[in-house]
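Sequence in, structure out. First:
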Amino acid sequence: MIINILAGGPEELLPELADYKEENAIWVGVDRGVFHLLNRNIKPVIAFGDFDSVSQDELSLIESQVAELKRYKPEKDETDMELALNWAIEQKPSIIRMFGATGGRLDHFLANVHLLLVPLKAKNPARVYLIDHQNIVFLKEPGSYTIEKMNSKKYISFLPLTLNVSDITLKGFKFPLKNQHISLGSTLCISNELISDYGTFSFSKGILIVIRSHD
């Protein structure tokens, strides 16, 4: 099962959602993201939010179209996206994608990047991605990984999310590395590219943010 979550970030930053409508994918709406889904003829199975970013008419449409609506007061301990992600993790999917979670307010964007840690801390095997029209963001724990070339997103960047990332090794990249140590604040691994169809990256300690992007 795949769970796609659409939040209410700037609509112009969304990718083409039709590309993610696999047969085994279900959709979840978050706040104004529910309205964006309905406008694309995608009916979410559940929706979360305080819905302070929609008009009364839009809210009436949402209430008439979504069978399970989780409404919350604006004053709460979790963001709407965190509530939706926690629900998604409980469903035990293989993949979770978060859309509409970049752009606009920087505090929300950075919080959404940090939410990628939630399944890691829960030891949940779901692969979680933060996706917009220009970027795919995900986290990796220590290990060795194969990464495939994407012509639509040729740049691959690696940023430490922890204070230190140890022994990072990049093979098959334009700028290879071997057992390199990078620390929080380093830009050493920004804007790399694969030189063949596949490459590998590995490291022994820390957590990496992996960003695939294009200009």
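Second:
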Amino acid sequence: MQWIINLQRDIYLAFAGHIRAFADGGSWTALAAFLPMGIVFGAVHAMTPGHSKAVLATYLTGSSAGMGRSLLVSLALSFTHVTTAVLIAMLSLPLVSVALGSVGRAPALETISRGLLGLIGLWMLWRACSRAGHKHDAEEGAAFGFMAGLIPCPLTLFVMTFAIVRGVPEAGIAFAVTMMAGVAFTLCAVALATVFFRQQLVGFLETRPRLVAAVTRSIEAVAGLVLVAIAIREIIR
């Protein structure tokens, strides 16, 4: 845990230092030279606790999404996760210091996000208990990614707030775009790994169609229950 705290601190200080230097000197060349590191920092930051990785893996375990659709879900989650932070900082900077419960958190958005995920969990649970066939379409996956990503990225919120205070919001947006790529890389890796192992399990059992059907419904039911439990825990915490 201490290593994670130190890593987060080093990432924050690195971004703050380059934004401060850009605000003082206005050199886009120096800033652009560091921007690729934003991808690395975004990817590493997304590996730390949070960012809905467990929720993403739970949903994909219980869905029938393939590799392509799982990437769509991951990209939707990453885009919403980072963009929400940018919008909060850009549209209402006082909200960051007054309405947020603590640095990098937005309790109201977290509650909305977990509540919506709980509804998806109930929907998955209902479908698992129903004998009628069903289809997981791309719209459902994109909607899940949006709901799970409503919680703003704390690193992006910090970078945007720091950049706005320094009078260079364009630098914060530039970093946000590169960080989004890094976050998407990590979440896509989680999604692909989840789908791969799920497909391997189904492939192993495909010679037993009745067993596969039962296992699939059971996995979806468990995934739905987990999402509901996560939603309830986060809302009442």
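Remark: The longest helix spans residues 169-205.
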